[in-house]
Amino acid sequence: MVEAPLEMQKNLTIPKDFDDACKARGQPMVGNAAGNTVDLLDLTGANAPPGPLPEGFTPRGVVALVFSILAAFIGMGVISWYGVGELRSKSSSI
Fold first, then answer.
1. Which residues, at least 6 apart from 69, have a Cβ–Cβ distance to it below 8 Å?
2. What is the pLDDT of residues 53-83, one digit of tens each?
3. In whole angstroms, how large is the CA radius of gyration of the chain?
4. Does pTM surpass 0.85?
5. Half-sphere exposure (CA, 13 Å, Cβ side) for 22?
């Protein structure tokens, strides 16, 4: 939260790169999110958020879940196999 936005605006300067980036994309530099300077509560023309996520599992999600579980079991099996194996030590003869 900004406690004193008017005081902050007195000392803050926006870099020219920001102006150039907004002009290149056609984004307004004044007003609200839609560029409206008359009615700041009117957001007609502003970018819309993405739609809601689908409910439940999608087929891609199910495949990803299955392969993740498979990789986990293979990993646990390899770790168990490595842990149960005999330790081999090099016998040094002097």
1. none
2. 888 888 999 999 999 999 999 999 999 999 8
3. 30
4. no
5. 12
